[in-house]
Amino acid sequence: NMDSTLHYIHNDSDLSTNSSFSPEEERKSKVQDVVPQALLDQYLSMTDPSRAQTVDTEIAKHCAYSLPGVALTLGRQNWHCLKDTYETLASDMQWKVRRTLAFSIHELAVILGDQLTAGDLVPVFNGFLKDLDEVRIGVLKHLHDFLKLLHLDKRREYLYQLQEFLVTDNSRNWRFRAELAEQLILLLDLYSARDIYDYLRPIAFSLCADKVSSVRWISYKLVSEMVKKLYTASTSTFVVNLMNELVEKFCKCRKWSGRQTFVFICQVKCLFVHLFG
């Protein structure tokens, strides 16, 4: 039932997405008729700093955790009731609050649809990308889920930022890089062969040389899937160039570890079976 409801809301394009209100409309912006208004007002007041001091220091986190469910209940047409609260939580001083929103922003995007997502969620998403690693991991784990909801032109803007995920606050945080490799495998279906070759290929090669073996193993799968994707593209130049680079960087590498990497890449998905049948 939840999936069907999300599907219905996401595909309902007749609802208004105008988020600018006159002073009179601003006073009425929190009014809706889905749930008792007093209940909604009580929920919205959870972001009041005084409540956090006198009631529960974790109250803002609880509010952030429940927000997608509240948004689903109210429906896209009542997003204006939650928008200010969402933006307040997204800029909360506690990183745990921002982290909670980062992990659920892709679910909220499904509820709101592409227009509201582009106008209200993308700026918040961009802020999370520059946040602490504890917050960034939330958007990274669901990067594909969020980007697939954006229009192609908006989605391509993030190609320039994917490289930034290689840099973390703690260089020993190898799980961050492993998650990046997992997400890049999924992102192959969202971008063209040229985009994959120009932007994803350098990141994949960098991950293949990672110091942590768990990251490298996932990267081998990424490169093999990348070769398969480029091979099925209409332009064969990209896969030829990629194969030549693999041979030069790894197969002919002076270090045994580099030559071993080439073998592992071929082994993961039987690379040459894909290429030469």
Keywords:
277 residues; 69% helix; 2 domains; mainly alpha; elongated; Leucine-rich Repeat Variant; 16 helices
Structural summary, described in words:
InterPro entries: ARM-like, ARM-type_fold, PP2A_Regulatory_Subunit_A. There is one protein chain. With 277 residues, the chain is mainly α. It contains 16 helices and no strands. Helix 6 packs across helix 7 (95-129).
Round the Cα radius of gyration to an integer and report it.
22 Å
CATH-scheme architecture of the largest domain? Alpha Horseshoe
What share of the residues does DSSP label as strand, in percent? under 5%
**Overall pLDDT level:** 84
SSE topology string: HHHHHHHHHHHHHHHH
State the name of the first-level CATH class of the largest domain: Mainly Alpha
Report, as a whole number of angstroms, the end-to-end distance: 44 Å
Main pleated-sheet profile = none
How many individual β-strands? 0
Number of domains: 2
Question: pLDDT under 50 segments (min length 5)?
Answer: 4-19
The dominant shape is: elongated
- Helical run tally: 16
Share in helix: 55-70%
CATH fold node name of the largest domain: Leucine-rich Repeat Variant
Structural class: mainly alpha
Q: In the CATH hierarchy, what is the superfamily of the largest domain? A: Leucine-rich Repeat Variant
Give a quick rundown of the structure:
With 277 residues, the protein is mostly helical. The chain has helices at 2-11, 23-27, 37-44, 49-54, 59-74, 83-90, 95-129, 133-141, 143-147, 152-156, 174-187, 193-208, 213-231, 237-251, 256-269, 271-276.
